[in-house]
Amino acid sequence: MSWTLMDKCCPKCWHNPPSNPCPKYIECRIKGPLCHDSSECRKLRARRLNELMFGRHGIKVRVALASCTLAVGAADVYYAVQEFVRESGLAVDVDIVGCHGLDFIDPWIEVVKKGLPPAIYANVNPEEVSNIVSSYLSGDVSKAFAIKYRTGTAKGEFLVPTLDELEFWRKQVRLVGRNCGIINPESIEEYVARGGYLGLVRAIKKSPDEVIEEIRLAKLRGRGGAGFPTWIKWKAVKDQVSDVKYVVANAEEGDPSAFSNRLLIESDPFIVIEGMIIAGYVTGANKGYIFVGAEFDLAAERLKKAVEEARKYGLLGDNVLGSGFSFDVEVFQDAGRYTSGEETALLEEIEGKRSSPRVRPPYPVSRGLWGKPTVVNNVETLAHAAVIVREGWDRYATIGAEKSGGTKMVSVSGSVRRPGVYEVPIGTSVKTIIDGLAGGPPEGVKLKAIEVGGPAGGFLPASEMDVPLDYDELLKLGVAMGSGILIAIDEHKCIVDLVRQFMVFFVSESCGKCVPCRVGTREMLEILNRICCGEGGQEDLELLQELGETLKNASFCALGSGAPIPVLSTIRYFREEYLTHIREKRCPADTCPVSREVVRYEG
Amino acid sequence: MTVAGSKHLKKEGMRPENLVQALKTIQQVEGHVSPESARAIAQQLRVPYSEVFSVATFYHLLSTESLGKYRIYVCTGITCYIKGNMENLKYLKSVLGIKDGHHTSSDELFTVEEVSCLSCCSHAPVVAVHMPDGTKRIVGRANPEVLQKMISELRLLAHKKGWVK
């Protein structure tokens, strides 16, 4: 391993983590050295910062490796880049980065050379790699998808947009996602070089109450779906008298079609850990768990590496940065169950049991993991906390809506031209996200509905797309923000069929603990099956509504009470489609069995 | 339980709270959680056998029945559903000769199951393959042509490794 910013610059450097913890350690890495005076060492650190940008020889190729890019062949692109470097004999550094969230350009690479504009190439084939890199190095960027800035030195650079000129980039406000697609997610050095862990440094200089006050003034609300004010949770745990407390980061992200947490962790695992350490410092917890979804192997792997690195440099462990506070983090991966995302159910799973929800109250803040006071926060919430403490609450609070500050990462998929993850201020209209950022539906296709918030969210008709993406505003229309999911549904899809598919999901995922959810979802599926097969009656709609209300009111946890939302919201907005199935025995989209020869559904 | 299995288990820790981790470990090492392994876990962790079985049958990534070498998960989340993954599911089952109500091919090489989301919705429809070594491959923009190629590659690898009966 070559020398990194995290290391001593010379024998005079006082910092030797984790043996002599110091609050100035992080600043000393990037602004320093601060522990001793040496112009040589200052130059060394500045040179290294430069190297991180352009590589050791002034040329660097970054390949985006995250689940999304890997799904469309990024591994082959990575091998092709390595092959090119080997064969050409050029002094080029090859590095990995996470993903910007602009999934429509996957697989993508970025090529940088000192003096040329950094260029991003989209939808790269392994065969094109050598051409792309060679022509870039010869000073021609005309084939790039976008460049980061202009230098006036490259051929074709005025024909290629800069990222900031692109509507879908400009309209985003990237706070928690600022490092996504920029840093190597396996290098703590790159995170620190971009100002990482300065939030923690600021936090430990303050009292826990001062940090809680900042979070309150920033109007941060939980990003997992419920939108609960984060400061109240933190204060509640801080005020508990207990020698053992826990912080649990929820990265289960079980809602189908949500992928922003996965992208955040895979691209910047450090910010989540930084947020957790801050939460631990504020609440007096000494142990944290990150609960990762069953399919998130890469995310878990990168988190584990980030935890190890943090331990190595004294950011986790005893006496974090000389604050006197000790904290450690463990990564726990789910064994696969939708209910595991519920805040008490995941505690059950960490304790080695089935992930069925617990009765609340007592809430986890008073009796959580192993019966001890526990903060359970979504990973994105923790990342926001790290941003707020680093940059101050005042700017953060001005972004977003009146009662809810900051931004939200939204996962946009379905019938849109530019699916991906976009970070937007809370309160941005659904229309802006779907049309402005995600590019609207493909040519010749019209949107019928937007599914908001995932399975427990609800369907919004295309005519209501002006609604702001905000916890309170969406609830007024009978849908929930959930974990920030937007699925564009075009006119060729049958709403009743989609709702039926959601119900299939709930039937298979109900943990079975309470009757309304276990039996209710099954009954609702029966009725939906009947309607899709053309055997439904007018009374079935009332029955669905009645059952739905029962589930909403009587289910044990939010998953059961969320299950009928797709049904209820579509009966409200798409009643006509149900009626066409029932009265005319016809499926307008021609997908349900009623329109075809198929007889029945299995099971 | 195999020797390898019990060795791994010891690393996980032996307290009741390690149950989920212990089951995941055995699933990984032995391919499924057999009744014998479940009993061994019950004894070693001092948890009732009924509870071990209850947990083992609760989670989707644990299985009490033996599975194919390759486990193929077809995403049926809404995005993949509207992008046509049900057709891919049907295609996979028919090309591998897996009958309705069954999940594993007769040569015990492939298990095909549905999964609720693989979190790569931008590239829907998505299919994931859990490889015998514990790694995962995610295949985006899946269609019968892509899947046919994938199956051929996996079969070739199985022949090389001598997994075919």
Keywords:
heterodimer, A: 603 residues, alpha/beta, Glutaredoxin, Rossmann fold, 5 domains, five-stranded mixed beta sheet, 24 helices, 14 strands, globular, B: 165 residues, 4 strands, 12% strand
Low-confidence segments of chain A, ≥5 residues, pLDDT <50?
Answer: none
- The CATH architecture assignment of the largest domain in chain B turns out to be 3-Layer(aba) Sandwich
N-end to C-end Cα span of chain A: 57 Å
The named CATH superfamily of the largest domain in chain A: NADH-ubiquinone oxidoreductase 51kDa subunit
The shape of chain A, in one word, is globular
Quickly name the level 1 CATH class of the largest domain in chain B: Alpha Beta
- Largest sheet report of chain A: 5 strands, mixed
Mean pLDDT of chain A: 93
The strand count of chain A comes to: 14
Strand residue content of chain A = 5-15%
Task: Note the beta-strand portion of chain B.
Answer: 5-15%
Overview of the structural elements:
The complex is a heterodimer of chains A (603) and B (165). Chain A contains 24 helices and 14 strands. Chain A is α/β, with parallel strands linked by helices. Chain A is globular and about 80 Å long. The mean pLDDT of chain A is 93. Chain B is an alpha+beta fold. In chain B, strands 2-1-3-4 form a 4-stranded mixed β-sheet, covered by helices on one side. In chain B, strand 3 and strand 4 form a beta hairpin. The interface between A and B is large, with 54 and 45 residues.
